[in-house]
Amino acid sequence: MKVKRKLMRRLTSAVAAALMTFAGLGAAGAAPAQAAAPTAEYVALGDSYASGVGAGSYDPASGDCKRSTKNYPHLWAAANPEYKLKDVTCSGAKIPDVRANQLSALKPTTNLVTLTVGGNDAQFAPVVEGCLTKDDSYCETGTIWASYYARNQMVNELSSLYKDIKARSPKALILVFGYPQAISTTGTCAPIELSARKRTAMNGFADALAEGTKKATVDASVYFVDMRKQFAGHGACGTAPWIHGVNLAESAATFHPNAAGQEQGYAAKFLATWG
């Protein structure tokens, strides 16, 4: 009996020790679940389509860059609070501007990068102005020259930029958002009417920008997000536009996404793609 009681005491002590060890492991394991998850880093780069010109609600601190709190980076970040957004997008930015003024925001720890750029390098504003103020032939010639650049030289410039981004942030997911076709083929474009020839030419230029950008992403092995299908039926001059037509109150917003375009166009596509 003494031997049995001694054996039982040993077993009881062993079980108690095991339970104490298990409880300690449970407490240690529970702590990380209760702690806040580490914040992921998201950096937004690009031009006026990324900064949100045309969407309103501009951050006064952004000055001439006109970063909107309704742009697609802000809308996506609001829906994904585990990401900390650093928005360095800027209206008017060209590829060299992104490299010189925006890439410094990137870190080796950056997790997500988005970018829309190339339109200004392809002379988007002068082409639009020519199509609005000159005849059909002038508009077609301008878009042809701009489209040639977009399908050739721009590809190499963008590819080099994407590789620079990858070198600075090697673990980041890089999403390159393209440009949509800006103009509906039907509807009235008051106060300046656009002929069918001009609309075709300008949408052809948008296709060249998209195709050139896509080729550059393939060359650099980053992801391209094509916005043309997303905006189909919502171009300027149509019945449900997500893009401004000629905007007399804010000329820079002409043929740029409005608030709906940023939210239902870009941000919705972004959320469907990642997050």
UniProtKB/TrEMBL annotation:
InterPro entries: SEST-like, SGNH_hydro, SGNH_hydro_sf. The active site is at residues 48, 256. Residues 1-35 form the signal peptide. Residues 44-263 form the SGNH hydrolase-type esterase domain. GO terms for biological process: triglyceride catabolic process. Disulfide bonds join 65-90, 131-139, 189-237. SUPFAM superfamilies: SGNH hydrolase. Keywords: Disulfide bond, Hydrolase, Signal. GO terms for molecular function: triacylglycerol lipase activity. This is SGNH/GDSL hydrolase family protein.
